[in-house]
Amino acid sequence: MLKELLEAGKCFKLVCGAGNEDALEVEKLVALYSKAGCKFFDVSAKPEIIDAAKKGLQDREGYICVSVGIKGDPHVRKAQIDYEKCAGCHKCEEICPQKTIKHCKVKTARCIGCGKCYSVCTHGAISFLSENKDLNEVLPPLIEKGIDCIEFHVMGEDESGIYEKWDYINSVYDGLLSICTARGKLSEEKMISRIERMTAIRKPYTTIVQADGFPMSGGKDDYKTTLQAVATAEIVQNAKMPVYIMLSGGTNSKTAELAKLCGINYNGIAIGTFARKIVNRYIEREDFLKNDYIFNEALNIARSLVGNV
User: Fold this and answer.
1) What is the pLDDT of residues 49-82, one digit of tens each?
2) Is 189 exposed, middle or buried (0-12, 13-18, 19+ CB in 10 A)?
C-alpha cells in the first residue's frame, strides 16, 4: 500500500514531469526506476501517459500519481517562441533539460515549463502558454483507468479557483491526494493557511504535502540547490498538520542527508529534473529498452539515487 510506503519514511517518487507528454520517455523512465526500487511515479494527467507508465512497470509493484494544476502554475505551462523576435542564438536549445527545442522550435509534448529557456533569451522571444484544463473532462477517465493519487499544484494566486478545483477533486476521488506547494509569491503564513484550509475537509493522513522548494531546479547535485526544498519542508513540519511530507523542487542526491541534518521527519522525496538528467544519455537512445548493457549502465546510476532516500 502507498500509505505504508509513506509511513516507512523511505518513499522515493520519480517525477516524470507534469507537462511531459512524451509517452515513450515516460515508459523508459518508469521501466528503469521501477527496477531500481522506486515504487511511486508522478506523471502527466493523460490516459496515454498512464498507459505508458503501466507498460514501463510491467509486473513490478508501483503507484501512479497524476498531476493537475491551476492557470499560472509553472508545471502546467508550455514555452513558445516568437520567430520574428528570435535571433537564432540557440541558447534555449543548449539549456533545455528536456531537449525540447530543436532549430528554435518547441516540441510541445516534451516541454515541462521549467523556464530555463526564458531565463537565457535576451531577445524576448520566449513566452508561455498556460494550460488550464477542465478537471470535469480530465479526471474521470484517469480515475477509471486506475490511479493511486492525484496531485494538485497550488502555486498560483487564484484562491477561489484553487478551492473550487480542490472541492471537485475531493468529490470525485476518495483516494490519497497530494498538495504541491511552494512559497513563491506567498508568505509562509499564507502558504500554511492555504494548506490548513485544504486539509480541513480531509481525514488525517490522507494527504501528502509536497514541499516544493524551487520548482524544477534540480539540475545540480549540491546542498545549495536542495536547500529551499528542505527549508520549505521545515515550515510544513513546524505547522504540525496530520499530513505526509514529501520534499521536492531542487531535490538531488544530497536532499536526504541535508534533511536529516536539519531534523526534518520527511515521509518521502520526489526527484524529477535531477533523476532524469543523470540517466538522460541512456534514456534518449532508441535501443534503451532492448539493449541490456545500456539499460544496466543506467540502472546502476538510478539505484544509487533511489538508495539515497
Assistant:
1) 999 999 999 989 999 999 998 765 656 677 888 8
2) exposed
DSSP characters over 165-184:
HHHHHHHH--SEEEEEE--T
The single-letter DSSP state of residue 250 is S
- In whole angstroms, how far apart are CA 285 and each of 28, 94, 288? 10, 19, 5
Q: pLDDT tens digit string along 236-255?
A: 999 999 999 999 999 999 99
CA distance linking residue 14 with residue 34, whole number of Å: 9
What does the alpha-carbon distance between residue 39 and residue 61 come to, in Å, rounded to a whole number?
6
* HEC profile of 103-125: CCEECHHHCCCCCHHHHHCCCCC
Global model pTM greater than 0.85: yes
The rounded distance, in Å, linking the Cα atoms of 171 and 180 is 19
Per the CB < 8 A criterion, the answer to whether 153 and 70 are in contact is yes
In whole angstroms, what is the distance from residue 99 CA to residue 93 CA? 7
